[in-house]
């Protein structure tokens, strides 16, 4: 397979973009610099907050802001574009219509992997922003793959938002135990087979091995697809 240049629209948030980059490097089988993926990363932190845009119904604000990024990546000659932000995939079809470069569908790829791993009909939990939950993007994809998506009740959802916005985006030290408690509730009290970490801020938190077995990290799925589509091999 030919080596293909990868474009990345990041900054949503910047720490998550950094983690994405590090994971791509870590999971690409390479013996020298030249065997790694050529990447063009735009750390566009000024993009409007996705949850606020969705809740206010002002999608044109986001699309106008990201249109320049798509043009820059076209000029850079990338072959695929990864966007390490789950909530932004609410605008996926609109963004894809704005460019001829294939975008990697983080949500769809994640639900496909959940189905392959746990089987159709499985009940899976989700931890994400209010914007991702209310947009229904994971709900629609779950229906497509025959999965039962279990969305958190209000109290649990508020705790997830605190971790995402107050802790990670607020650049605080976050104890994995805080996130693991939410995963524990969804798996052991609400009988989910697994929990999708559907916010890249949650990917910035290193879980203990026990809870990693209960979680499907959408960031990891995006990393794997980005490496494969760039013509590289995953590390074992």
Q: Count of helical segments?
A: 11
Give the uncertain stretches in residue-range form.
Answer: none
Can you name the CATH architecture of the largest domain?
A: 3-Layer(aba) Sandwich
**What's the gyration radius in Å?**
17 Å
The arrangement of helices and strands along the chain is: EHEHHEHHEHHEHHEHEH
The total of beta strands comes to: 7
CATH topology-level fold name of the largest domain = Rossmann fold
Q: What share of residues are in beta strands? A: 5-15%
CATH class category name of the largest domain: Alpha Beta
Strand order of the largest sheet: 5-4-6-7
- The pLDDT mean sits at 96
**Share of residues in helices:** 40-55%
Main beta sheet: 4 strands, parallel
**Global structural class:** alpha/beta
What is the count of structural domains? 2
Principal-axis shape equals: globular
Euclidean distance between termini CA atoms: 19 Å
Oligomeric state of the chains present here: single chain
SSE topology sketch:
Layout: E1 6-10, H1 14-27, E2 39-43, H2 50-56, H3 59-76, E3 80-82, H4 92-97, H5 106-118, E4 123-127, H6 130-135, H7 137-144, E5 148-150, H8 154-168, H9 176-189, E6 194-197, H10 209-212, E7 215-217, H11 218-229
Parallel strand pairs: 1-2, 1-3, 4-5, 4-6, 6-7
Helix pairs in contact: 1-11, 5-11
């Amino acid at each position: 397979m030919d080596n293909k240049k990868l474009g990345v629209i990041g900054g949503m948030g910047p720490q998550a973009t950094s983690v994405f980059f590090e994971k791509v490097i870590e999971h690409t089988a390479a013996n020298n610099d030249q065997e790694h993926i050529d990447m063009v990363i735009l750390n566009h932190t000024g993009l409007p907050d996705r949850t606020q845009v969705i809740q206010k119904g002002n999608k044109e604000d986001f699309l106008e802001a990201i249109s320049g990024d798509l043009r820059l990546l076209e000029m850079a000659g990338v072959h695929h574009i990864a966007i390490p932000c789950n909530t932004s995939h609410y605008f996926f079809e609109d963004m894809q219509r704005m460019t001829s470069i294939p975008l990697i569908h983080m949500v769809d790829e994640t639900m496909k992997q959940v189905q392959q791993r746990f089987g159709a009909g499985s009940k899976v939990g989700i931890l994400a922003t209010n914007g991702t939950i209310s947009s229904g993007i994971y709900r629609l994809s779950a229906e497509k793959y025959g999965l039962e998506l279990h969305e958190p009740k209000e109290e649990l959802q508020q705790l997830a938002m605190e971790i995402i916005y107050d802790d990670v985006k607020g650049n605080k030290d976050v104890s994995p135990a805080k996130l693991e408690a939410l995963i524990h509730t969804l798996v052991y009290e609400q009988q989910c087979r697994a929990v999708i970490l559907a916010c890249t801020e949650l990917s910035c938190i290193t879980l203990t091995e026990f809870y990693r077995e209960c979680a499907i990290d959408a960031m990891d799925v995006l990393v794997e697809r980005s490496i494969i589509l760039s013509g590289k091999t995953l590390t074992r």
